[in-house]
Specification:
By secondary structure, the chain is of the alpha/beta class. It has helices at about 15-30, 45-55, 90-100, 100-115, 125-150; strands spanning about 5-10, 35-45, 65-70, 80-85. The chain has one domain: Collagenase (Catalytic Domain) (3-Layer(aba) Sandwich), CATH 3.40.390.30. The protein has a 4-stranded mixed beta sheet, sandwiched between helices. Helix 1 (about 15-30) crosses helix 4 (about 100-115), helix 3 crosses helix 4 (about 100-115) and helix 4 crosses helix 5 (about 125-150). The longest helix has 24 residues, at about 125-150. About 25% of the residues are buried.
Amino acid sequence: MNRILISKDIYDRHITKKFIRETAEKVLKELGLDSVELSITLTDDETIKEINRQWRKKDKPTDVLSFPIDEKPPGYRYRVLGDVVISLPYAKRQAEEIGIPYRDEVVRLLIHGILHLLGYDHEVCPAEAKKMFSLQDRIFEKLTSSRIQHQIP
């Protein structure tokens, strides 16, 4: 059993906490992870811009940020993976630009963020990027195709 903490700082009726929790559980299952803690924040462009500026020295909004912790405190039941922050307005624009459903883009960003928490980094070198995006695409296809097959909105 995993512990998934979700903070939703922005109203969006299409992306519910339940949808995010269920998606995160599926991603963790695909990665063979159990007894982990994951924090997910859904926010707006202004907030993610401030976080990006503060932690990455990039004064602009972005789609997703990850802050790995990856530790198991003594006596604590869960391995703490870290925090994923997603800008929902950014994700919505990005989905429109690339021509995929908004919810699918949020799924993709959540997978991407979780992979970063596990140490995957597409900015290190082309081989690492290929490894990360291959895994991301495999999980994304499995999650989004099963949703379509089962008529889950």
